Amino acid sequence: MSGLRRRPSGTWLPGAWAALGLCAALSALGVASPAVPIALADPVRSVLVEPGDQTAGKFFSDLATWWRFRDIPSSDRLVVQGVRGEQRRLHEVNRGRGDFALVSMDGLALHQEEYPTLAVIAVLWPNYLHVLTRNPAPAEFAWPLQWPLRVARGAEYVQNTLHALLRHETGQEAVAAAGNASTIGTPPLAGTLRPSPQAPAAESAATAGSATPDGAAPEPPLPDWRLPPEADVLADLNEAIVLLSAPLPTPQVLSAATATDTAPLRLLPLSAELLEELKLTHAWLLVGGLRPERYPFLRQGIEVPVAYTVVVARRDLPVDSARKMLQGLYEYTSQAALVNPLFAQVDKANLKVFNGIVPLHPATRAEYALPDPAGTTKRIETTWVPPAAHPAPAPRRAPS
């Protein structure tokens, strides 16, 4: 925890050493020093992230230091606070107990109707679906499942689609047992992937069967393939397939690929049918490529789903605070990327890509002169049915 100091409120602030280190690094790279001394001033603006998410924590800690380094006109300062669970982070911001929440587009889609006062103020980095295994047998990741499955945080949208396939296969109605957030908001089948006659065996049950209103036998529970937050994501790859959604390149994947005391690491492609089903049931998914230039152990590139991380805020966030967040994220990315490479993957052009697919914040649309497509910013569609007033969007791709 060097370079960080603990505040009594439970949030973390970049300490003086971190700020001085960043200033020294930027000065060495030819970036001008600030004209005024670094100082902390009220009001505090908090960004809520998942506890233990080192990628997000470091990104926003660097951004907080960058806010103070650049003389962006505002009296705000930014602190990073850990709040577990996407729904909880949205709830806290909705209640005014946080200013910004970091969530996936999937998390926003699942809970958007509960929080209509929230909107996307920024689209951040792309997260590529990695289908990992050391098992030499599978040729691709396909339905029906033939191998044990593990789903890491961020890839839950795949589990939701598999649940929809399983429900369709078994004839179940929607199951939303208390405490199992993975079954809430599961998208309906788009009709492109026909389930097999044989359902895969459930490895673990996250929900208990619920009795039907007429007293019939309870429905079978849905399998929950999610890994616990503290689990070693890549520890069980000899037989299982692990789904990991992360920005490129992913250090833990590169590290696992260099291990010499086990079977070679493999990145599997998705079957064409499953990839199409995911695209059709999640309007916010893009498609991108995993290439040998990123992962040398790949013999050839593969196409995978790409889900972006977003920053959400209340629609009544002060314009000055919204503008400062946008400037900090989008206007100095080439310079900030010298300190944190993840800034290089933050592109304001994605605001135009997702305008009408996610509900963009009024301040964001005003700052970048983006239109407000009537009828398309009220909720994220969970099936690919473009609004009648707009033509079907062209296929979109994430940077490879």
Short description:
The chain is α/β, with parallel strands linked by helices.
What does this structure look like?
This protein is an alpha/beta fold and 400 residues long. It has a domain at 4-126 and 309-367: Periplasmic binding protein-like II (D-Maltodextrin-Binding Protein, domain 2). The protein contains eleven helices and eleven strands. It has helices spanning 16-28, 54-69, 86-94, 105-111, 156-170, 251-257, 272-281, 319-330, 333-336, 349-354, 362-367, and strands at residues 4-6, 12-14, 44-49, 77-82, 100-104, 118-133, 149-151, 241-246, 266-267, 286-290, 302-314. Strands 3, 4, 5, 6, 7, 8, 9, 10 and 11 form a nine-stranded mixed β-sheet that branches. The protein has a two-stranded antiparallel ribbon with strand order 1-2. Helix 5 (156-170) links the parallel strand 7 (149-151) and strand 8 (241-246). Helix 1 (16-28) packs across helix 2 (54-69). The protein is globular and about 55 Å long. The model is unreliable at 1-42, 173-186, 194-213 and 375-395 (pLDDT under 50).
Question: What keyword list fits this structure?
Answer:
11 helices, 400 residues, disordered N terminus, globular, single chain, alpha/beta, two-stranded antiparallel sheet, D-Maltodextrin-Binding Protein, domain 2
Task: Give the arrangement of secondary structure elements.
Blueprint: E1 4-6, E2 12-14, H1 16-28, E3 44-49, H2 54-69, E4 77-82, H3 86-94, E5 100-104, H4 105-111, E6 118-133, E7 149-151, H5 156-170, E8 241-246, H6 251-257, E9 266-267, H7 272-281, E10 286-290, E11 302-314, H8 319-330, H9 333-336, H10 349-354, H11 362-367
Parallel strand pairs: 3-4, 3-5, 7-8
Antiparallel strand pairs: 1-2, 5-11, 6-8, 6-9, 6-11, 10-11
Helix pairs in contact: 1-2
